[in-house]
Specification:
The chain is mainly beta and 127 residues long. 0% of the residues lie in helices and 50% in strands. The chain contains no helices and eleven strands. The relative contact order is 0.32. Strands 2, 4, 5, 6, 9, 10 and 11 form a seven-stranded mixed beta sheet that branches. It has a four-stranded antiparallel beta sheet with strand order 1-3-8-7, with no helix packed on it.
């Protein structure tokens, strides 16, 4: 059974930090790109970051570049999203998703057409 378990969300003040984790199982982790998406109330789901399994290339949305860092621990089949300098507009449910990777061009993309999705974790940033 494919599972993507997102965790690490919570309530934090503006300027604070959180680290999200996405634990994967049920598929060959090394063959997949992992992306983070978020969805705020009344808004569409948007891509935040992605890491490719090919060479570890990372991608960030402009709104989080320089504040968020995505990383992968292949031994643990887990991807992390370190979020620093959080802002109230970062408040959303954060989801991780897996997409079969491609070579040489990474499959990472910003539209939500990924193969597998996790259940989401709430991040709330207070002002």
């Amino acid at each position: 059974e494919v599972q993507l378990q997102a965790s690490g969300g919570g309530l934090v003040q503006a300027g604070g930090s959180l680290r999200l984790s996405c634990a994967a199982s049920g598929f060959t982790f090394d063959d997949y790109a992992i992306g983070w998406f978020r969805q705020a109330p009344g808004k569409e789901r948007e891509g935040v970051s992605c890491i490719s399994s090919n060479d570890g290339s990372t991608y960030y949305a402009g709104s989080v570049k320089g504040r968020f860092t995505i990383s992968s621990d292949n031994a643990k089949n887990t991807v992390y999203l370190q979020m620093n300098s959080l802002k109230p507009e970062d408040t959303a449910v954060y989801y991780c998703a897996a997409l079969f990777d491609t070579y040489p061009e990474a499959a990472c993309r910003w539209d939500p057409s990924y193969d597998y999705w996790g259940q989401g974790t709430q991040v709330t940033v207070s002002s």
